[in-house]
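Appendix C: a fully annotated inverse folding record. The material below is reproduced so that readers can follow the format used throughout the book. The structure is listed first as tokens, followed by the designed sequence.
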């Protein structure tokens, strides 16, 4: 298994892995959705180069046997002090250290970019992820609460 920078050809696998996370509501997800919708357009390569621009996002993928099995992205805020972070691993490859390897590699990127804080959202129903993040030094910073709203039957 190796970790490398993402390339434009990885966009569909990255999107599939990203979709496993909580429903996205940020610029990265908007851009990926836009690209997927425009995938038949001849200028798609321009959009790929924009999304995979290292000045906007740092995106790493984990690859095994030339197959993308995980990804991690880091995007800074406008102050360049704090960055958001997400990681996702293919369900068939979970529990093999892939998420840990991606996280460690991305934390090194965050250091070189000069970020002082890296934040992520992790859900309580993923105890494996919680354990890994705690081992790497992550600590709770705030509590988010949610309520599932359903239509009455």
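Designed amino acids, in order:
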């Amino acid at each position: 298994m190796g970790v490398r920078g993402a390339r434009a050809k990885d966009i569909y696998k990255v999107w599939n892995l990203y979709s496993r996370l909580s429903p996205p509501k940020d610029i990265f997800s908007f851009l990926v959705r836009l690209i997927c919708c425009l995938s038949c357009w001849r200028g798609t390569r321009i959009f790929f180069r924009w999304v995979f621009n290292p000045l906007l996002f740092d995106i790493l993928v984990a690859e095994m046997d030339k197959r993308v099995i995980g990804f991690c992205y880091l995007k800074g805020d406008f102050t360049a002090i704090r960055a958001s972070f997400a990681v996702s691993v293919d369900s068939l490859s979970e529990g093999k250290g892939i998420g840990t390897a991606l996280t460690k590699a991305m934390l090194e990127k965050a250091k070189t970019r000069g970020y002082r804080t890296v934040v992520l959202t992790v859900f309580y129903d993923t105890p494996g992820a919680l354990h890994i993040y705690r081992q790497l030094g992550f600590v709770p910073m705030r509590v988010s609460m949610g309520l599932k709203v359903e239509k009455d039957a």
